[in-house]
Design goal:
- The protein is mostly helical and about 375 residues long.
- It has 15 helices and no strands.
- Helices cover about 80% and strands about 0% of the residues.
- It starts with a helix and ends with a helix.
Length: about 375
């Protein structure tokens, strides 16, 4: 086990050491420390995301999975952490009449404070959009839209939800209810925008699934790549929502100690790349070792992480929620799924049930 862990960590450790030494020699100790600090944050989030991403990987075919687990996760991490915030701000600028979409990307370099303010300003709209999108991804598990044979983690209630007659109708209906409630949580003048953003999240999900369904019907390499691309897109969007929107701060603002915006971008990009490589390697190890099958509740835990994220996004319409909250909620869910998957837990539960049954028998006697 230790040998396998060492193989997984080798590449990220070498990348970190090389970049840190170069940064120290060329740019100074402050830059190197800022880089190492951000690497720790990215690595922590990457490891915590490995199990949910392994759950995503098990839902796609083998050829698409290979693409997803190699450069796909790295691309998704880079897109979600570095480019989607700028794209979101650019869309808002376009809605306000600014036809130069590149202005948002230029603003990151020329005026980081203004960019952070713009991102914070549009956070409720993106939260409403993302809550519906992520909920629909979670609902695939909750209502068992693929109709796969599986056990239940949370008992009879979960089992009944997995057997609903029209799973897709249940998924859409609950998403619509969530979007409607979210619209009521905001001031009246913003309700229509929030509901429209939720509808856009649902439309994005439907488009992604439609493209994936089209790609699965073919056998060519291009269609396999398209299928993997839809999964990568979902991954990038989830990263963006969890790490950027819940606290309204871009990863580029995590290295404010660095005086130059250009250096901030370079340091953030290098740290995110290290985290992305580690995420891809750890996720690949979980899939290769069949960890989700050997620990039977891990897949459920990965799904419930997405469910918790969607609820936190809806809750963030009332008050900002720090990203660390989402991170720890996901950690607790994964740990609970792992512990309840262990044989010792099953023996403990069986023993408690036997004692309870014996106590009830004595009472009846």
């Amino acid at each position: 086990m230790i040998r396998k862990l060492n193989r997984v960590l080798t590449v990220p450790v070498i990348l970190t050491a090389v970049v840190a030494v170069v940064a120290w020699e060329v740019l100074g100790l402050q830059i190197a420390v800022a880089f190492l600090f951000l690497v720790v944050l990215e690595t922590t989030m990457g490891v915590k995301s490995a199990v949910p991403m392994a759950g995503v990987a098990t839902r796609i075919d083998e050829r698409s999975r290979r693409i997803f687990l190699t450069f796909g996760l790295v691309v998704g991490e880079l897109l979600g952490r570095l480019l989607l915030p700028e794209f979101a701000v650019a869309v808002e600028h376009a809605r306000e009449g600014d036809t130069h979409l590149w202005n948002a990307f230029i603003e990151v370099v020329t005026d980081p404070s203004a960019f952070a303010s713009d991102l914070l300003h549009i956070r409720p709209a993106i939260a409403a959009y993302g809550a519906v999108f992520v909920w629909l991804v979670f609902a695939e598990y909750l209502f068992n839209t693929d109709r796969t044979s599986r056990g239940s983690w949370l008992g009879p209630a979960e089992a009944r939800l997995a057997r609903v007659r029209r799973p897709w109708l249940a998924s859409v209906s609950t998403a619509v209810i969530g979007a409607t409630v979210g619209a009521f949580l905001v001031p009246p003048h913003a309700a229509l925008i929030i509901f429209a953003c939720g509808a856009a999240g649902g439309a994005t999900y439907a488009l992604s699934k439609g493209i994936a369904a089209w790609a699965r019907r073919g056998t060519g390499g291009r269609r396999v790549s398209v299928h993997a691309g839809t999964v990568i897109f979902e991954r990038a969007l989830v990263i963006f929502l969890m790490c950027e929107i819940l606290d309204g701060v871009s990863v580029l603002q995590s290295v404010k100690a660095v005086p130059s915006p250009v250096l901030q971008i370079l340091i953030a990009s290098a740290a995110v790349t290290v985290g992305a490589v580690l995420l891809a390697l750890v996720t690949g190890r979980v899939v290769a070792s069949d960890g989700l099958a050997r620990h039977r509740h891990l897949k459920a835990g990965a799904a419930y992480c997405l469910g918790a994220l969607s609820i936190l996004l809806w809750a963030s319409l009332i008050a900002p929620i720090p990203g660390i909250v989402a991170s720890w909620v996901a950690t607790v869910i994964i740990l609970a799924a792992l512990i309840t998957s262990l044989p010792i837990w099953e023996r403990l539960v069986d023993g408690l049930r036997a004692r309870l049954a014996a106590a009830q028998a004595r009472l009846r006697a």
